[in-house]
Amino acid sequence: MRIIICGSSGHHQFSVTESILQRKVFHDDKDTKLTTKTSGKILERNVTLINTPNLIDHDLFHYMSKKELKKAVCFSCPGPHAVLFTLNPSEIPPNVNDVFKQLVKYFGDKILKNTMVVLYHEEQQLTKQIEDSVKKNKHLNELLNNCGQRCLFFSRTKNTSGGDVTMELFEKIDKMVEDHGIFSNPEFEDAEKRIMKEEKILQDQRKKEVNAMVEELKKKYSRDELEREIEQYKEKIRLENREKAEMLIADRLGFTLRLVDYAAAVGKGAFAGTILAGAMGYPGMAVGAAVGAVLGGMLGGFFGAVWNIISDALSDFGRHATYT
After folding, report:
1. How many other β-carbons are positioned within 10 Å of the β-carbon of residue 166?
2. Edge-to-edge strand order for the sheet containing 151-155?
3. In the predicted model, is pLDDT for residue 230 greater than 60?
4. Residues 43, 29, 192, 176: what is their CA dihedral angle, to the nearest 10 degrees?
5. What is the reported pLDDT for 306?
6. 177 with 183: CB under 8 angstroms?
């Protein structure tokens, strides 16, 4: 089960992840500013939880935030079973719909069919006053209408004993998937194709390593045990290859986003330069465009970022070369 978890207030979405997994996951503030992927076996289910940075603290259409969402796409390919939008029931922001609309704008309207609102709190039971305020909150009700009224009050304290709330969450997700399937769009489809291609490359590169280990296992185990050990080892390698492939593709897609953004900065500068130089006549327009492109690049941080772009490209190449 693949679940993308996002939120708009504090660290509630990260607490949801830890509560579901019943263990500490995030160790410092850096964890909560990046897209992270955590997996575990919960209630006999293999679960992968992908946390995005807090939506309210980021402009999703800045390339850094888009890069983090690209990671979320790659980490949840071929598509998430659910997107959990977490909120603090005591502090629902008045612009909660505007915050969530950013996500819809990025992924498309169909993401709503796989979205559930999770109201996370630490108490065993919410006070009647908070419950009433939540029910009457028009901003939340508008969001719930868009999400098919899918909502869950998630109590960390109540979930500690036996994972009752997690079980309820999984049941709701199963029903959602039964009704709508897992979420996908052309971006997920493209990312999955890239990841599978990269997986194949990594698999081919590690053939000698795998064959050597299989020979070692043959020396240590009898027939029945051997089959189990080989299967477990190959599954371990497959998961490692998958994770490396996901990260490589996420990095490359993020690198592409950066190039596009800087190219846009140069293009806007050229356009502005052309307009400003219009009074100078045709030759002046050409000069103005060139000067504007330079200025646009400077204003867009182009020159300051050139080395970063080259460094990232070399780093990506270096990582890829390491696997070969």
Report:
1. 20
2. 36-42, 45-51, 2-7, 82-87, 115-121, 151-155
3. yes
4. 40
5. 45
6. no
Q: How far apart are CA 7 and CA 104, in angstroms?
A: 13
Amino acid of residue 97:
N
CA distances from 88 to 15, 33, 154, 163, 237 (A): 11, 19, 10, 20, 40
CA angle 95-98-99, nearest 5°? 85
Structural contact between residues 61 and 41, judged by C-beta atoms closer than 8 angstroms:
no
- Residue 180: count other Cβ atoms within 10 Å of its Cβ: 15
d(CA 226, CA 308): 48
Dist. CA 183–CA 7, nearest whole Å? 19
Q: Which two tokens stand for residue 69?
A: 């969402």
pTM of the model: 0.76
The winner for highest mean pLDDT among 67-71, 164-168, 263-267 is: 164-168
